[in-house]
Amino acid sequence: MTIDKTTPLANALQDKQRTIKCVIWDLDHTLWNGVLLEDEQVMPRSEILTIIKTLDSRGILQSIASKNAYEPAIQKLKEWEIMEYFLYPQINWQPKSTSISTIARALNISIDTLAFIDDQPFEREEVAFNHPDILCLDVTNIATMLDKPEMQPRFITEDSSRRRQMYMSDIKRNESEQEFQGPAEKFLASLNMIFTISIAQESDLRRAEELTLRTHQLNTTGYTYSYDELNAIRQSKRYKLYISSLDDRYGTYGKIGLTLIECTPEVWTIKLLLMSCRVLSRGVGTIMVNYIMQQAKKAGVRLQAEFVETKSNRMMYITYKFGGFKEIQRNGNNVLMEDDLSHIQSFPDYIKIIDHSMPCD
Amino acid sequence: MADIHTKTRDFINHFFPNVTIQDDQDIFTMGFINSLFAMQLVMFVESEFGITVENEDLDINNFKSINAIASLVERKAGNAA
């Protein structure tokens, strides 16, 4: 079996209907019946709590853009025990398009992956005018919302169902990072990070496919693989497919890394090495490269890596080059590199590495 | 061009605050060099000294010490002039 660069799947998915990553709710007459400032006893719409919980279980994030007084509105959400579902809620008197920009920036996702729900045509038009790519929905159609194709992720992984909690942990981490005085390494040490490397199991493949599609910046080749291709790769003796995860004292980052190596008796070739950009500032890409260098040295093979240069993946090029890789062949943006394995860094003290993979053959 | 040495030492000291770095000292043996530090070092050299680090310049030998970085900068700046 040979698995070469495959693009048809990625193209098919781009043509497909978009997927919403975050739903932004209005409050008065939308999340609840009535106007809070006129009636303190407002009640949530009957179907709304189910919808909020269902979206959450699908890995779709949620936030709020409401013109309201902040404290009383938050009190209501806490009273109904749904406050925790909303990230970066914007409850103020600004135009809603401004609130939506703030949310998109905070979550680091693009406007075309957002949906906005409001009962007032004026608000929907103001938002649509300033953000033509957003999906605006009228709350009167709320009953069928969950059935919309945009609200159905291609698949739901363990990582997607806990996405909100991972964002919550990120908020706490970022706060402590901003408050931290001192060198970056000291901050990394304060996180008590654990990096776990495993051979991908069948249960990891949906997440693995998702990573190949969603990751661009920390991605050495951008090759995409479908679930079926990955399943064939996983069972083939010719390939090693590693999946890695990261945890720290704030919780888990989930499965954040994928590495595919093609193994021949003399040469191992890293076809793909990617890390979610959520761990960009954690330095784990270098750790994974070092791990493979160690494994290759142990197996007594030469180590090569394919690289496809893009506008956004220079960091991975630098990771390889500073790891000691040298270009041995180049055809436009397609590069083949080799490392002579003469200098391999040992792992840093500030992170614990757990190797769950099988011994190399 | 002592300036390049001083600025580069200040930058590196930010990451290794408790050591005195000699001009010829190999910084790649001082601690774990992760991809983030590597990226920041390259971006620092580009923005601080106004040069473009090409793929072929991205070699540990050009970045392993303050002297190495200074001679890379001088070479690139000389080429541009």
Automatic annotation (TrEMBL), chain A:
**NCBIfam families of this UniProt entry?**
FkbH (TIGR01686), HAD-SF-IIIC (TIGR01681)
> Please, which domain of life does this record's source organism belong to?
Bacteria
> What species was this sequence derived from?
Dictyobacter arantiisoli
This protein's name: N-acetyltransferase domain-containing protein
UniProtKB/TrEMBL annotation, chain B:
All copies of the Carrier domain together span 1-77
Kindly name one Pfam family recorded for this protein. PP-binding
Listed InterPro entries: ACP-like_sf, PP-bd_ACP
The superkingdom listed in its UniProt entry is: Bacteria
Its recorded name reads Carrier domain-containing protein
Which organism is this protein's natural source? Dictyobacter arantiisoli
